[in-house]
Specification:
single chain, mainly alpha, Serine Threonine Protein Phosphatase 5, Tetratricopeptide repeat, 2 domains, 11 helices, 66% helix, globular
């Protein structure tokens, strides 16, 4: 229950409550055998790709990331990668982890993580995350990844657009990054997507500065 309530707190932008619930969930599952978590929306192959402990650490890391606490996010991501048993989970965790490492200046570790990602990895769900990792590797182009926006935005295009913004940021183009993130917020039908929530966090922190 803490895992799922924490996810809902994250969805409605109550980051402090999300972190508290997910940290409690991590405490309650520490040292216990992990278990596959059935998908609320099964994928095309009807194969669950995540576990209870993966989801706890994944959402905890994301809550810290959206809040701009990249060190805490990385700690949670390291634990998440440790319990990532499916290629989809590895790709999803690696995506957020790479961006976090880069933003903390951990260039060598980030490159080592990126080098472990191969275009041929067999995934079911994490296509957008893999495409973005390949963009960071230089194996995809910007034009390959641009998708629909505004009212036509989809979960995948919102996910991809957030990563494109970070790609601009890491390549020294903060204005382009902010333009991409602002455009994401026009697709209000995707308000609960992690890319949308993360774009909101970026713009909010930038406004404060």
């Amino acid at each position: 229950m803490y895992r799922h309530r924490g996810h809902r707190h994250l969805s409605v932008r109550e980051l402090g409550k999300a972190i508290a619930d997910l940290e409690r969930a991590a405490e309650l599952t520490e040292g216990r055998m992990d278990e596959v978590e059935p998908d609320g929306l099964p994928n095309a192959m009807n194969i669950p790709t995540s576990t209870l402990q993966f989801n706890i650490w994944y959402h905890l890391a994301l809550a810290h990331y959206v809040a701009g606490d990249f060190e805490a996010a990385l700690d949670a991501q390291r634990n998440c990668l440790r319990v990532s048993v499916h290629p989809d989970s590895v790709v999803a965790t690696s995506y957020w982890m790479y961006m976090t490492m880069r933003r903390l200046g951990l260039e060598d570790e980030a490159q080592e993580l990126l080098d472990s990602i191969d275009a041929g990895i067999e995934i079911i769900e994490s296509v957008a995350y893999l495409d973005l990792l390949l963009l960071f590797k230089g194996e995809r182009s910007l034009g390959d990844l641009i998708g629909p926006s505004a009212d036509a935005a989809t979960l995948q295009s919102t996910t991809t657009s957030y990563g494109l913004g970070v790609w601009h940021l890491l390549n020294g183009r903060p204005d382009d990054a902010h333009e991409v993130w602002e455009r994401i917020l026009e697709g209000r039908n995707q308000w609960s997507a992690f890319g949308y929530i993360s774009a909101e966090g970026e713009l909010a922190r930038s406004a404060v500065r």
